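Our consortium's second objective concerns turning raw sequence data into structural hypotheses that experimental partners can test. To show how far this objective has progressed, the report includes one record in full. It was chosen at random from the queue rather than selected for favorable results. The single chain below, 218 residues long, was entered without modification.
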Amino acid sequence: MKFFIDTANLEEIKKAKALGILDGVTTNPSLISKESIDKEWIMDHYISICDLLEDEEDLSAEIISTNYVDMIQEGEKLSLLHPKIVVKIPMCEDGIKAIKFLSKKNIKTNCTLVFSIGQAILAAKSGSYYVSPFVGRLDDISHNGLSLIKDIKIIYDNYHFKTNILAASIRHPLHITECAKIGIHAVTSPLNVISNLVQHPLTNIGLDKFLKDYKNKF
């Protein structure tokens, strides 16, 4: 399973790379708005992110347009910025049409804000490279986000859809490990969630004992 970091912060991306687990980056307008950059420098910021990535890694950069014509124009513009960019498009009728159009032009897309099986099927049928179901946001409203991931995986396997499942809105390590058991392509999460996979109280206790025993002897 691939690990993507959900951020637009260059330092966080560098830390993920240093940890040795980075497979890609996802962003959205909210994450971009947190960075200290002016609007006219957003495209340059995307390029800076891409320049940090290795050959097989990619960046999902989200459009802000909401109608078909503007979506495809913005999508084409983003795709020309850098070969590592995947155009992130929200789930809606015009979004599905835009994904279909861009896919026919061999432009990779990521269908985002997916919350249902039906939406996931449409994303795959339109040719999206990634589909991003939002696990945590479903949990927030007392729906089982992981159950949706399981159902999408079953349906995609049934029909041999090539769309990759990229689980988003990951809130804690359990989301990551459960997604791994389901067998999906990738998860995207904040860096701190991935870092928390390292932690276990028994690991800390064991390490402290090993070092104490060594010190007492030598």
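The partners drew two points from this record. The first strand starts at residue 2 and ends at 6. The chain has a mean pLDDT of 97. Both points have been shared with the crystallography group to help prioritize constructs.
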